[in-house]
Design goal:
Layout (H helix, E strand, L loop, with lengths): L13 E4 L6 E2 L1 H14 L7 H9 L4 H6 L7 H11 L3 H4 L3 E2 L3 H10 L3 E7 L3 H11 L7 E5 L4 H9 L11 E5 L2 H10 L2 E5 L6 H4 L6 E3 L13
Parallel strand pairs: 1-4, 1-6, 4-5, 6-7, 7-8
Antiparallel strand pairs: 2-3
Helix pairs in contact: 1-4, 8-9
C-alpha cells in the first residue's frame, strides 16, 4: 500500500532504514572499487556517470565488464570486489545524503523509533562509519545481514519488533528490490528512494511501493493522510 494514498491518517511509530542509498551516497565508493580493479588488470573503466547509470539500471556485472572488454576477468573481479568494497579506505568515500541527518533528527523529535537494517559484512567498519558520519546517534538499533540473505534476511532480523498490529504503523525506507521484499514480508508500508542504487523506472515497477526522489521528500511522518 502507498502511505500517501491511505484514506485515514496513519501514525508512524517505527521506521526501518536501509543505509546505502537512502542515508549514504555510495556512488564514489562503488566506482572507485570498480575502476581500481579494472585498471589493476589493464582495462579501461567506463566514465563514472555511465558506470553508475548502467549499474542503477540493473545491467548485470558480466555485461558491465564486457563494455570494457573485461569479461574475461569476471571471477577475479568478483573476488577483488568482495575483498575491497567494504575496506575502510573505500567506506571513507561515502557521503551522507543531503538532508538525511536533519530527517533523522526530526523523526526522533517526533518520537519515532529508528532502526537501521543493512547488508554489510564488515561490522567494525559499519559502526565506525556510522559514528564518523553522525548517523549513529539517531538510531535505536542496528541490524546487519549478509548480502546473500537479501530481503528475507532483512525481514528476519527485525521480525521480533513487529506483530500484525505494529506493522500497520511501521514504515520501511530503502532503495532496492531487497527492501521492497523485506517490507512485503513484514506487512510494512514501503517507500523506495530513487537517488540510490536503482533507477526510478525500475522502482516504480515494484507493486505497492511509493517512490520518492530522496529521503527529504518524506517530511513529517507523525501523521500522514
Amino acid at each position: 500500500r502507498d502511505l500517501w494514498d491511505l484514506p485515514v491518517k496513519t501514525c508512524i511509530k517505527q521506521i526501518f532504514l536501509d543505509l546505502d542509498g537512502p542515508l549514504l551516497d555510495g556512488k564514489e565508493r562503488h566506482y572507485r572499487c570498480y575502476k581500481d580493479i579494472l585498471e589493476l588488470h589493464g582495462f579501461l573503466p567506463l566514465p563514472l556517470e555511465e558506470y553508475w547509470e548502467r549499474k542503477r539500471s540493473l545491467l548485470n556485472r558480466r555485461d558491465l565488464l564486457n563494455l570494457s572488454g573485461a569479461g574475461i576477468i569476471y571471477n577475479s573481479f568478483l573476488d577483488h570486489w568482495l575483498a575491497k568494497i567494504e575496506a575502510s579506505e573505500m567506506l571513507a568515500l561515502d557521503k551522507v545524503q543531503d538532508g538525511a541527518l536533519e530527517c533523522l533528527r526530526n523523526w526522533k523529535e517526533q518520537g519515532i523509533a529508528l532502526y537501521l537494517v543493512t547488508l554489510r559484512k564488515n561490522i567494525l567498519g559499519l559502526y565506525t562509519q556510522l559514528a564518523n558520519t553522525g548517523l549513529q546517534e539517531f538510531l535505536d538499533a542496528v541490524f546487519a545481514c549478509d548480502h546473500s540473505q537479501g530481503g528475507e534476511g532483512k525481514a528476519a532480523a527485525v521480525r521480533s519488533l513487529l506483530d500484525d498490529a505494529s506493522s500497520q504503523s511501521a514504515l520501511w525506507i530503502g532503495d532496492t528490490e531487497v527492501d521492497w521484499t523485506a517490507a512485503k514480508l513484514l506487512g510494512c508500508t514501503v517507500v523506495l528512494i530513487s537517488n540510490g542504487l536503482r533507477s526510478e523506472s525500475f522502482l516504480t515497477s515494484l507493486e505497492g511501493a511509493s517512490v520518492k526522489a530522496s529521503i527529504n521528500d518524506l517530511g513529517d511522518l507523525t501523521h500522514v493522510a
